[in-house]
Amino acid sequence: MFTGLPCPSPLEAIFVDTDQGPKNIPVVKSSATCEQQLLELKESLVNFSVGDYVLKSRVDEKVGNKLLVTWIGPFVITRADSHSFRVRKLISGKESTVHASRLKFYADKSLNVNEELLEHVASQGIVLKVDGIRDHRWNDRIKDYELLMHWHDLGAIEDSWEPMKSVRKDVRLMVENYEKSDQ
């Protein structure tokens, strides 16, 4: 329908020209300023200092576009940079640089690092190299074979029974060679 009135500008929703001046522009500017201040605050909210204990995220798996992480540690912070930290493993003493977003506070420098804590840290995230397959057996409960795995640099007392299905995923060639030699 034509009214004969001039076509309104799309900017009239933002800019209202009255005697009082524009009303919405200062609101938009103050909102942008507020967002900028929040961003700066978020970036500066790193609450770790040298000597603190932190947990580090480890990506275990990617499902779709989501990362599945596990928090491991604690690690002790040895150096703090602007956006990253230098952390040291409690057991091996190895150091690595980690971005602040991958760390979570665990305890301050007064943490009592006792034998129980060190044992817990030593047991997490271990990747063992297979030295060989010693034996096999049928497991009725899981309806699959288990393989007696001998681990590199560990004694025979630490050999363990592992499901054949999971071992085959990790060391397929070794399992196939064991199957051939067992026949």
What would you note in describing this structure?
The chain has about 180 residues and is an alpha+beta fold. The chain has three domains: about 30 residues; about 70 residues, SH3 type barrels, CATH 2.30.30; about 55 residues, OB fold (Dihydrolipoamide Acetyltransferase, E2P), CATH 2.40.50.40. It is about 25% helix and about 35% strand. The chain is built from four helices and eight strands. The strands form two sheets. Strands 4-3-2-1-5 form a five-stranded antiparallel beta sheet, with no helix packed on it. The N and C termini lie far apart (about 90 Å). The model has no long low-confidence stretch (mean pLDDT about 80).
Please give the share of residues in helix.
25-40%
Quaternary structure of the protein: single chain
The assigned CATH architecture of the largest domain is Roll
Which class of secondary structure composition applies to the elements? Answer: alpha+beta
Count of separate structural domains: 3
User: What percentage of the residues does DSSP assign to strands (E)?
Assistant: 25-35%
Poorly predicted regions are: none
Question: Which whole number gives the mean pLDDT?
Answer: 80
- Kindly report how far apart the N and C termini lie: 90 Å
Strand order of the largest sheet: 4-3-2-1-5
By DSSP (H or I, 4+ residues per run), the number of helices equals 4
Q: Might you state the CATH topology name of the largest domain?
A: SH3 type barrels
Radius of gyration: 30 Å
Protein name: Chromo domain-containing protein
InterPro entries: Chromo-like_dom_sf (IPR016197), Chromo/chromo_shadow_dom (IPR000953)
Organism: Phytophthora nicotianae P1569
Domain Chromo: 128-183
